[in-house]
Amino acid sequence: MASYRRTVLPAGVRVVTEEIPHVRSCSIGIWVNAGSRWEAPEENGVSHFIEHLVFKGTTRRTARQIAEEMDGVGGQLNAFTGKDHTCFYAKVLDEHVDLAMDILCDLVCHPLITADDVGKERGVVAEEIGTYEDSPEEVVHDEFARAAWGGQSVGLPVLGTQETLRNLTRDVIVRYMESHYTCDNVVVAAAGHASHERIVEAVKKHLALPAFARATQARPSWTPAVRAFRPKNIEQAHLCVGVDGYNRTHPLRFALYVLDTTIGGGMSSRLFQKLREDRGLVYSTYSYAASFDDVGALVVYAATSPANVEEVEGLIREELSEVAFHGISREELERGKEQLKSSLVLNLETTNSRMSRLGRLELFHEPLETPDEVFRKIDGVTGDDVQQVAAELLGGAAPVAAAVGPRRVKSSFVRREHHGRGDRREARVAPGCHRGAARGAPRGHSRGRREA
Prior knowledge:
This protein has 452 residues and is an alpha+beta fold.
């Protein structure tokens, strides 16, 4: 039985822990409610830039000292940024928990952020953006998000662009940190061989941030039927087709997860069978449900030959329509539930993944439920629930579609627009930089390993 404990300190910092007595390690993360969705378009990428800059040195440690102190105890130190969060984390032996907390809090609370370091790291991030741009299978998710939600909030890429990167001066960065790195915006999560009391005392000792609230943003607006195409000199075409979805606390979210699994969650899924096994049109295809505080999306991805884009998109739309009007079978319902439960358990086999789950749940004000409690909710999903979700999400407005591929894809991609019956706009969107734009997944710091 999981043992979760939670404490809210007077300044507003929330501390959540899971003590696991049979292990000898502990993973600790400082989660900040700061990500690309909270950025102004002209400062896009600042959250991820900060993730890099704090490792350049603090008022107490140089970059070399940070590395040597952590390596000296055999620990791991890293960070990642997503659309609505930044996490700085460490994994150490239980005897070094206090040192890990000291270093993490030093990074978050006392970074130097010198003008010289900003200039140097700008070059590093520019190279990271360039590397990302060479991955069209990831870029297409950013194109989709921008097409669906526009050039602000969750439509912004996590890394920013080469253009916005040039706007990130030291003053912009410091001002952003002052507004977002505040006690009420921070969660400290820990999982492993360390008591809750020990973590709380370390937070009290080392974490020193201002305590005032950040202003909230307006809810992003979904625009149906938009089509975005990004030309790239590559051999394949990468396609995303998606519909407006549910936020992360929606009462039917577990039914949505079952529906997502049935559509594109594995080798037995409808789209894998139809597009790959039956037709041989793709090598890779899957679906995912992206959920944020206020909005969400259900998205299908496929990579195919440029000559097959129109056919693949047509088959995807056909399958979504089939599910919207006829639902899923009893066998698909039960198989989807078992896949969800297995995925949850398999993703909780390390202290890092357990810490990440706690941090995300608490940061976004979701209940700290044990796997068994989640299992009961999954088992409670009925065929009628899934049918309701499918009808609501897949039976309404035309989907948003985005493609990245060679220029010859453009004509067939635009022609697929139901022969004039839909919205015929074609959105040419700015270069994107993070697959998590649609999926909500983090972008890891370049220092090394990352555990999802």
